Structures are given as structure tokens and as C-alpha cells.
Amino acid sequence: MNVVAFQGSPRIEGNADILLAETLKGIPESGHEVRLFRLNFMNIKTCQDCGGCEKTGKCVINDDMDEVYDAIRGADRVILASPVFFFALTAQSKAMIDRCQAFWCEKYLLKRSIPGGPVGRRGLLLLVGGMKKEVGVQCGEATAKAFFRTISVPEHETLSFLGVDAKGAILEHPTALRQAYEAGKKLISA
Ligand SMILES: Cc1cc2nc3c(=O)[nH]c(=O)nc-3n(C[C@H](O)[C@H](O)[C@H](O)COP(=O)(O)O)c2cc1C
């Protein structure tokens, strides 16, 4: 299977990064190709709402999204790992998602969904927030759901952890790493 993973935190070895790494450990190397995009370190411009994608389903901006578009098109599984920032996904995650407006146009205006392969397409959302306020998860989940459906991932699972703030604090969580690992295994099971 082709697995595409997005890491939306600016912190390397921060909580989302650790959770995602644990999820990927649950995916055996043989038989699966994993592509990891650390969005903070990519050149992804924000959507300009220029309408350029409306007739073609293709974004007119050429930057690192070119690689992301190709990866999403060929993905069987898509993982998005993001911290909650101001009760939402991070700007890094959101910039990539907004650029998927090109897929939105392709799917809803041009009536061409990304075809699912023989194993279908599924997603996984990993969220971590420093506060214990559910609203951050609800808002992040709503945006992620719109993202997944736009890129023709019809179903996804969400794992969220609140009250996890300091860099690496997720390592102290009693169940998070095991849950992330199990979610990775489940994601690639038929
Ligand atoms: C700019 C910014 C905004 C934040 N806003 C929220 C928030 O609204 N809700 C929340 O639960 N945590 C918030 N946090 C805390 C992060 O979600 C928390 O530290 C998280 O563990 C960071 O994950 P990371 O280590 O993967 O970067 C915020 C942190 C930053 C830097």
C-alpha cells in the first residue's frame, strides 16, 4: 500500500512527531511504501483563491505541493498528525489542506473523484493539544474531515490527546504510544 503521512507541527520530536513515528512503526516495511511530509520544512504557499484550478483541477502555483498532489493521488492511506493551535489545526497543516482546493474543484466541479485502488482509501487523524478543551479537537476534526473527503478518503479514524503540552510530554502518556502503534497496524489491515 502507498501510505502518505503529513506532520503538521513545527516541533521535530514534539508530540505530533512522536505520535506519527509510533503510528508508522505499526506499518511493516515490506509491502508498503511510506512517504512522510514534514510540512513545516516545505515550500507550500497559501491558496490565493485565484480560481485557476476551477476549470482544470490543477493548481497554478508551482512549489512543493506538486509532490504532495502526486502523493495524494497515488495514496491508499493518508495520515495527518497535527497539534491544536488556537483551537484549530496548525497553519502548516492548513496551508497544505487549502491547496487541496484543486482536488475539490476536480471532484465537485469537474465530477472526477480520485479513484480508489484495490484496497480502497482510508485515513487517520492524530491530534494533540496542550489544553483540556475538546473544542480544539472538534474544530481540528471538522477541518480534517473536509480534507479527507475532498481527497476522496471516505472514512478516517481520529486519535486525540489533550493536556499534553511540553515537547515530548506524550511519552509520559499511559496509552498514547500504544494506541498510535495499533492505529498504524489497523490502518493497513484490509
Ligand atoms: C501557537 C500555539 C497555539 C496553541 N493553541 C492551543 C489551543 O488552542 N488548544 C490547545 O489545546 N493547545 C494549544 N497549544 C498547545 C499545543 O497544542 C501543545 O503544546 C502540543 O503538545 C504541541 O504539539 P507538538 O509538540 O507536536 O508541536 C498551542 C501552542 C502554540 C505554540
Commentary on this structure:
Helix content is 35%, strand content 19%. The protein is α/β, with parallel strands linked by helices. Strands 1, 2, 3, 4, 5 and 6 form a 6-stranded mixed sheet that branches. β3 and β4 form a beta hairpin. The structure holds flavin mononucleotide. The site of flavin mononucleotide has 20 residues, from α1 and β3.
Primary descriptors:
single chain; 190 residues; alpha/beta; 6 helices; 6 strands
Q: Largest beta sheet, briefly?
A: 6 strands, mixed
Q: What is the gyration radius calculated from CA atoms?
A: 16 Å
Bound molecules: flavin mononucleotide
Shape: globular
Average pLDDT rating: 97
Helix content: 25-40%
Distance between the termini: 10 Å
Low-confidence stretches: none
Layout of helices and strands, plus pairs?
Blueprint: E1 2-7, H1 15-25, E2 33-38, H2 65-73, E3 77-85, E4 88-89, H3 91-98, H4 101-109, E5 122-128, H5 134-150, E6 155-161, H6 176-188
Parallel strand pairs: 1-2, 1-3, 3-5, 5-6
Antiparallel strand pairs: 3-4
Helix pairs in contact: 1-6
Bound molecules: flavin mononucleotide.
Flavin mononucleotide binds at residues 9, 11, 14-17, 83-87, 128-131, 133, 136, 164-165, 167.
Short summary:
This protein has 190 residues and is α/β, with parallel strands linked by helices. The chain has helices at residues 15-25, 65-73, 91-98, 101-109, 134-150, 176-188, and strands at 2-7, 33-38, 77-85, 88-89, 122-128, 155-161.
